[in-house]
Amino acid sequence: MGFVRAARKDEIPAGSIREFQVDGLTLAIANVGDKFYAIHNTCLHRGGPLGQGELHGVAVTCPWHGWQYDVTSGKLVMNQAIGVKTYGIEVRGDDLWIDAE
Asked: Which class is 3-99 in CATH?
């Protein structure tokens, strides 16, 4: 499958995270200091939408029950043994491309 276009850079302002549907996947894409990270959107606890959470630095807080994930690794902040899937991301001009494999 390879890389697929996910969003425009300007759809995700610095310091924010947003949800996107990409090739049948629901992803959360974060902008941390103009560097972009893509993680699976579903919290491991109760399925909350991470892309609707609050982003503070590299940590996104699930809006449902407060679980926090590091968007750079997908790992839980309090338990690095588990986490959500991360996806490769490339900036191509004004667009963000996700490795959807």
From this structure: mainly beta
Six-digit token pair at 73?
């690794």
Token duo for residue 88: 């490769």
Which strands, in side-by-side order, build the sheet including 54-56? 54-56, 59-61, 68-70
Residue 1 — very low, low, confident or very high, per pLDDT cuts 50/70/90? Answer: low
- 53: β partners: none
pTM over 0.70: yes
Helix, coil or strand: residue 1: coil
DSSP-assigned states of every residue in 18-81? EEEEETTEEEEEEEETTEEEEEESB-TTT--BGGGSEEETTEEE-TTT--EEETTT-BBSS-TT
- The answer to whether 4 and 92 are in contact (CB under 8 A) is no
